[in-house]
Amino acid sequence: MPDIQFDARLAVLIMIFAAVFTGVQAITGLARVGVAKRKVNKRLATVEKTGSLEQLVGELRKQRGLGADGEVTRGMGWFNDLVIRSGLNIQLKKHLPMVLLGGALVSALVFLWTRNWMIAAPVGPAVALIGPIMFLKLKAAGRAKAIGLQLPNALEVIIRSLEAGHPVPTAIALVGREMPDPLGSEFGMAGDEIAYGATLQQAIGRIADRCRHPDVDLFAATIRLQEKSGGNLTGLLKMNAKAVRERHKMRLKIKAASSEGRASAIILTAAPFGVLGILTFASPHFYGDVIGERPVQIGLAVLGTWMFLGNMVMRKMIDMRI
What we know:
The protein is mainly alpha-helical. It has two domains: 33-257, no CATH class; 258-322. The chain has 14 helices and no strands. The longest helix has 47 residues, at 117-163.
């Protein structure tokens, strides 16, 4: 019988591999569970925390930044519209001090870097003003994209429910239970408002006001048309779903056709700043020795203005809408 030698080093390596493999599997499993939980829409999570229907409707309206009557508050103008489209619950009393503190911190960091208050003073307020607006615009754009992708499926759920004999409010409530955010919460909120006493036309109109999406506006117009003139709602919604899908295909075609122009705009915009950054670190005195000269400052200002105008022209060339 041959002698079997035990290699302690190999055993340790196998145990280390097994431990690492198990740890990776555990982390992956937790991540998947977290993603699955996030897919459950916010309305369903709110239902578990509230008691009566009145409390649920009030809490949902509060989370969406709406008034007590469910209407969009018009007093804050375009900023309030941007907040509504982003889907975030922005409270000025809570978030404004954080924004101001962030702007002050940016000004302090710029001053420590440049030792010049003339430069540092305007940078902080500019970041505090532009940063949140850009963040809200990105969130609103992402939410609008998700709504455009989800709406045909939501319409199919409504169509199948109507064909099964359910009334329209039940079909809308079914979308709220089955669909993830953002449309899951929006349709669920409409179903709750109908149960609370709102008419179908009012509830769907409020969805359109909250989403500010052309496809949702088309759906709301379809409901209004059927409410006023009657007809086969299932057939209208089938045509509506088909139209939404065709519009989405057209948007993708437009995006593909304008991709070259968008790539050119990004490269032409980023190239000067990239070269400036490289020169700043590789040869700090290249611009540092002449940056205080008046002709250089005027020239840089003219070039910056010219670049801004060029970006506006390129944006106009590639901004095709349907």
